[in-house]
Amino acid sequence: MEHTASVLGRIPKGKRPRDVNALLAKLESYLTPEQVGQVYAAYEFGADVHEGQRRLSGEPFISHPVAVASLLADLHLDAPTITAAILHDVIEDTPTAKEQLAEQFGREVAALVDGVSKLDRVQFRSRAEAQAESFRKMLLAMADDIRVIMVKLADRTHNMRTLGSVPPAKSRRIARETLDIYAPIANRLGINSMRLELEELGFKALYPYRHRVLERALRRSRGNQRQFMRRIQDRLEKALRKAAIQAEVQGREKHLYSIYRKMQQKGRSLNEIVDVFGLRIVVNSADTCYRVLGIVHSHYRPMPGRFKDYIAIPRINGYQSLHTTLFGPNGLPLEVQIRTEDMDRIAESGIAAHWQYKTGDALGAAPQARAHEWLKGLIDMQGNSEEFLESVKIDLFPDKVYVFTPTGEIRRLPRGATALDFAYSVHTDVGNRCVAAKVDRRLVPLRTQLVTGQSVEILTARGAKPNPAWINFVVTAKARAAIRNYLKNLQRGEARELGRRLLDQALGEFSMSVRKVGRRKLKALTDELALADADELFEKIGLGERLAPLVARRLVAGGDEAEPGRQVEPLSIAGTEGMVVTYARCCFPVPDDPIMGYLSAGRGVVIHRNDCGNLAEYRKQPEKWVAVDWKHKVARRFSVEIRVEVINRLGVLAEVAANIAESNTNIEHVSVVERDGDTSTLIFQLQVSDRRHLEELLNRIRALPDAYKATRSCA
Q1: Active-site pick, 92, 200, 309, 536
Q2: Does CATH place domain 638-712 in 3.30.70.260?
Q3: Residue of 28, 59, 93, 592 marked active site
Q4: 92 is catalytic
Q5: What is this structure's pTM?
Q6: 676 labelled catalytic
Q7: What is 5-208's CATH superfamily?
Q8: What secondary structure does DSSP assign to 562-619, as a single string?
Q9: What are the average pLDDT values for consecutive 10-residue runs of the chain, which has 715 residues?
């Protein structure tokens, strides 16, 4: 392996490309000569395999990997990462194999390059799925080695800098992806310098007109603002010198995309955004930060409710600072940030600070530990790639809520998080067995949204299980993934049971059953269909992905034909089959209605009334129909829709609703359609136990003086 500094002697310094010399100069400031030699060897290799390839701008392709490596060198990343940055496109864009890289540059570098490479050899159903799967692979590779994302973020930053050569449609797509995914990841990992550039470039490419208008408006307001800022800065510097505090006071300006997002989210004009201009005060210790805060507040009155202590409670990405907003001269709002030098370094570099200053202190390790904790959680997320991407997006826009466990431990959750999200943040098992929650010692529903400062306690029970309705109100990726995973496993079990019953029913036409067919025939059929076992076959039948009559014919092929005129025993529906038997929303079947079942791929059996208006279309596929019937006693309630024609007068809706409630019937939804000035139609969605219950209810409504017609809705 040639990783020695002697490699640098092969080409005189004057003959090397200027960008390569600039990169090597940066590396020589913090790497050993041997490590710099390794990077240069990677450059020679990359230049050779990319020979003849050019970017859309016309530049040699190798200029891009060198620029990516240079961005990472600014953050003082280690030699293997810089080497991987130089080589990050060779697996994807050249015939080079991962094994070749491992042999020449080591397994560590090869693994990093492979983690960054896109999935270009897998066939996907859609571009969206391809992007999602590529992103999934990158994040899971990050979980093993976080340096993968450092290379990917630098790659995206340089691509955004050179976006002018890309066609407009593609440029907008890349910009949207940058704002949706890569800038938030940079923010989550605390790499502020890279996040700001990605957001600014993405905003300019996606919304060029909005960017120009906002930039022009900000430029016009800068002149007067800067005079105020200079005056405030001078006053605070004098006050700090008088208090014998060594500090650096810097003026700062909020970047355009942050201003745009705040205007958009809060519906405000530029004049209403209070922290466009501000000051940052950097001192040498955390204690001094609080002393400086006192001095600042003694000179300028603070705005109530605008103080944030991110030193005591750091942000999820490790960011620490004191934030306060002041009333400046002429009432000008002014945000001041107060932090130590270490906090300032981590605010700009995030996890990169781990490589930049390997001091071994807890402060430098905190962002690294938090990032790994987040990435470890990604491994638990199940489901398809686009579900995974959606979950990660939710996680990338947390907007912070800080709550406490009963023991005083701080938990960071996204805004809008519920008590159930808190339960899953503690542990998946706690979430799955959760039955109730206490917020500040008071029992609350699990869907209660949490606010900063609350203390939350979760009550669990051994036999408790997740409720399918939970998926509708949890907001964290971990909670969604855990509930989805449980429901998928539950659905598989229900599908297997239903599939076995459907196959038994279909085999009944041949005077057979699953038991009579025997394991040998089932094994032969599952092998022929490339399925793992009979359970997978039953599952696919239960989910409607395979048709029971066709499977039955294959199982009895060469055996007895169906008996002429033989009646197939209907499948009994109890209402407790779970997620693999659903009830059509077009006709709302209830017990005692004549019904038919329709096999729908992925949903199992959908139950329709025999007089449903949609049957005409479905009858064109007779092989998908299943004979079904109600069990004698069905112990649950079913949704049904009724229409009530009433005289249009004040209070008539309340009168009808009260009449329904008195009959022990739950109202799920109600809407009013005004037909003319004198009459209205009330449409109720109710829960009833059976057809008899429904008929009694309709008779009660018809007896009301203002209701002249009450009928069941028809599809």
Answers
A1: 92
A2: yes
A3: 93
A4: yes
A5: 0.58
A6: no
A7: Hypothetical protein af1432 (1.10.3210.10)
A8: PPTTPPPPPEEE-S--GGGEEE-TTT---TTS-EEEEEETTTEEEEEETT-TTHHHHT
A9: 44 67 90 91 91 86 93 90 92 86 90 70 48 61 72 91 88 87 80 90 92 84 70 90 91 83 77 72 93 92 86 79 85 85 82 54 53 59 57 60 80 86 91 90 90 87 83 85 79 78 79 81 82 83 76 68 52 70 87 86 80 76 79 82 89 89 86 78 90 91 90 79
